[in-house]
Amino acid sequence: EAQRLLDELAAEGKPLNFTMSLYPATKGVGEAIQTQLSTLNNLTVNVRTIDVAQVGQIMAQKDYDTLVSTVAFGDPEPRLWFSFHSKSAGNTSGIKDAELDAALEAGRTSTDVAERTKAYETVQNRLVELNPVVFYTRAAPGVIANSNVGGIQQYGMGSVLPETLWVQR
Known about the structure:
Helices cover 39% and strands 14% of the residues. The chain has a domain at 1-68. The protein has six helices and seven strands; from the N terminus they run H-E-H-E-H-E-H-H-H-E-E-E-E. Helix 4 packs antiparallel against helix 5 and helix 5 packs antiparallel against helix 6 (113-130). The strands form three sheets. The chain has a three-stranded parallel β-sheet with strand order 2-1-3. The chain is of the alpha/beta class.
């Protein structure tokens, strides 16, 4: 199916050409994707290595075709709203969908666990249906600490709650 669609684009004079903007640490992933996609005709995949210091400017100017990013979180709020709400500056995919926005708002504002669960199920279903991003790995946020540090609790986007930390002397 992919080859048929690429052939259609090429017949219309629009062969697909895109650049993946990647950090040095993820360049290998990009090259693997590039190699896998090289089996298709009428498709050119380029890899551009970017410095972490450039990311803010690149994102603000939307100077990318594809960009590796992270949607890591313990609780869906605030990360999912930040990443996928049409009014969020962090919505790098540019997705704009009223149903997705409404579900993100419902999940963000409800204090009822069942309502939040239902809202985030809708978010998940919309993301699957609309496919604004490609999730290629699942990361588990972690914390490294000395053995005498305890009370480590993560929240939000993986930050540590400082008020719960303790140090054994």
